Amino acid sequence: MSRTTIKCLMEGAGGRPRGFDSLRSILAIAVVLWHTSSICYGLDGEAWLWTGPLRPLGYFIVPAFFALSGFLVAGSLLRNDLTTFVTLRLVRIYPALAVEVFISAFIIGIGVTNLGIGDYFTGRRLYSYLLNVIGFVHYSLPGVFTENPVAGVVNAQLWTIPYELYCYGVLTIVALIGLCRRPVGFMMAVVILNIFILIYATYGDDTLAFAVRPPGGLAILCFLYGVGFYLVRDKIPMNWALFIGSLIAYTGFVFFAETVYASAVFATYMTIFLGLKKKKIPLISGMAKYSYGVYLYGYPLQQMVYQSLPAGKAWWSNFLISFPLSLAGAALSWHLVERRFDEKKKSIVAAANRLRDDLRARWVGPIPGRGVDTPRN
Hints:
Elements: H1 6-12, H2 19-51, H3 55-79, H4 82-112, H5 117-122, H6 124-129, H7 160-176, H8 183-203, H9 216-231, H10 240-254, H11 264-275, H12 291-308, H13 315-343, H14 345-363
């Protein structure tokens, strides 16, 4: 009897099942909804979500984003040379991030700070906040949101940015040593890494496994498993029995700090399984292109709604007000920033490749017959 593998399902959907778009949108909505508890009631008010029966859901959202990202970028890594791949990732992440950081610092921050404009611009935190653009995360701006339940935090969601950069750094090393061309070897390496981290978290420094919020290491593992699942897509069966088994295993492992890292492969399986579904969810699927913007703008807008509007102080009303604002910000980000850079990616990649070849020629010598690489997403 033939098995329904990841490869079979992808080929049946023309290479890009619609479920991935729906899943990206749902995860972005879930991030905003989840944050309403801390936005409105503080970190203590959110703690019961992380330690109670909803813990598996909370621990799934961000790792699922990473698993989805790993699975989708693996194809780009195989289709393109390393310079093109890295350039495409930078074009995807940095323009929208940079604009969001500057909007938070120079529009939202100025609008809601409790300091005078002179004190705001002379505050050291303003300029350290700008380092978020290059992945050095800072959460505070001078006098901003200081009376909110999560005091002084402008955008807590930026904690994931360094881990995403770590993922691309690891993937770059993997490409340089050629491990991405050895699918089984790559998966074995990820499993060995997973076992090492699991042992270290159990018998070593237990600060790796946080009681609240999924640890960054779990997100990185899910990213790497996502890459691995793509590389061995012709070998991994996809069916409801394995999905339910993964759900049970994931739920059991994620409740304990010592075993949370063992949940990574099961979280990844569930993510890819759901993403491979063909059914398109009306409205939800169409929001996929805005998911990154919602992810970036959701938290600062939720904080602003809480501070500025009496109606924004209950979790449900905060969500009902802030999510449409986040979606509007994400739409502007897509149409004014992300899409424009996406349309220019061929010329940006060509410039990056020319720079690479110039540097290589300067240090190594000219490369005869070198053409221009064309990015294939």
